[in-house]
Every structure is written in C-alpha cells, then in structure tokens.
C-alpha cells in the first residue's frame, strides 16, 4: 500500500477546527498502514464563489486545488455541519472540480457537529460524490457534540477515535477498489465537465 496517496480536504476555516483535528487523526491512521498523505487546508486557498462562466484557471487557486486532488487514490472530505448540510467552503472547492478529480476515485466522509449527529451533512456529501461517479466508502465518521470530543487536541472517547481511525485504514484498504457502474445522477451532471 506504499503507493496509495490519500488527500484530505478540510471544509472548516476555523482556527480551532475540530474537523481539522479529526482529519489529522484519519491521515495519521492512513500513514500507519503505509499511505502517503496530504491535508488540504482551504484557509490557504483563494477560491472565489463558483461561477460556471469563469474558467478554473482564472479562479484564484482552483486549478492548483484540482491538480492536488488528482494525485489522490483516495480523497477524504471533512466538514462541520452548518444548517443541516456541509460547509460552503467545501462546496465551493468541490464545484471547482469534476469528473477528472472524482470519477472512479475512492472517497471517505467525515462530518462534525457542535450538537446532534451530523447525518444530513454526510448524506449531502455522499450524494454529491455519487453524482461525480466517485466510490464512497460505506464506513463514515461522525463526531457529534464536538466541543466535548477533544481535550488538548486528542480524542476523549476511545470508541469515537477508533471510528475515525477506521476511516483512515479503509481509505487505504479501498483505494484501488473497482467501482460500480456510473450512477444515474452522473448522466445529468454536465456542470462537472470541463471546469
């Protein structure tokens, strides 16, 4: 598995982001089973709101973001739950990508919530990935009540940490899986081509 490259995208822009902490733990677990890893911190990218009339090469750092995602055998998407869905920075990042970055690529999902279980954020990310013909790992990681999930940057609950670690292992295990046929949604997704 030494040739597996796992790239995580953090959809949180907060300095004290629990999403980022969790993704760092996922990547650490992927490294422990032999993968090379990279964390894409969207705070470091200039990504204007997506405009389909603007070429990706003229949209800040969008072309660089897409190029870095294309190096991945597995992409991990991590987001806080905002208003029942995932974050707008992550949505913008995905909108600048398309089939070239996601089709037939393994994707793992992680969502964080300050309150209840962030199931709808996970569902929304899964739907978008399916529309891009990605193969989404069945195992997903969700962190509810995130303010109490960490202490000094470490997980408080070993069972929750194990769920997050498992996502890192599965990101490597399923990196080269043969994906299922294209989804119905992908046939309707012309916006993902050529941008």
What does this 3D model show about the protein?
- Pfam families: FMN_red.
- It comes from Natronorubrum aibiense.
- This is FMN reductase.
- The chain is α/β, with parallel strands linked by helices and 195 residues long.
- It has one domain: Rossmann fold (3-Layer(aba) Sandwich), CATH 3.40.50.360.
- Helix content is 35%, strand content 18%.
- It contains seven helices and eight strands, in the order E-H-E-H-E-H-H-E-H-E-E-E-E-H-H.
- The strands form two sheets. Strands 1, 2, 3, 4, 5 and 6 form a six-stranded parallel beta sheet that branches. A two-stranded antiparallel ribbon has the order 7-8.
- Helix 1 (18-32) crosses helix 6 (158-173).
- The chain is globular.
- The N and C termini lie far apart (31 Å).
- The mean pLDDT is 92.
Could you name the key traits of this structure?
single chain, Rossmann fold, two-stranded antiparallel ribbon, 7 helices, 18% strand
Q: Helix and strand string, N-terminal first?
A: EHEHEHHEHEEEEHH
Q: Give the C-alpha Rg.
A: 16 Å
Q: Determine the mean pLDDT.
A: 92
Strand runs, count: 8
Number of domains: 1
Low-confidence stretches: none
Q: For this structure, what is the CATH homologous superfamily? A: Flavodoxin domain
Under CATH at level 1, the class stands as Alpha Beta
Instruction: Give a short account of the largest sheet.
Output: 6 strands, parallel
**What fraction, in percent, of the residue positions are helical?**
25-40%
CATH second-level architecture? 3-Layer(aba) Sandwich
Beta-strand portion reads 15-25%
Q: Kindly identify the CATH topology.
A: Rossmann fold
Q: Helical region count? A: 7
Shape: globular
Structural class: alpha/beta
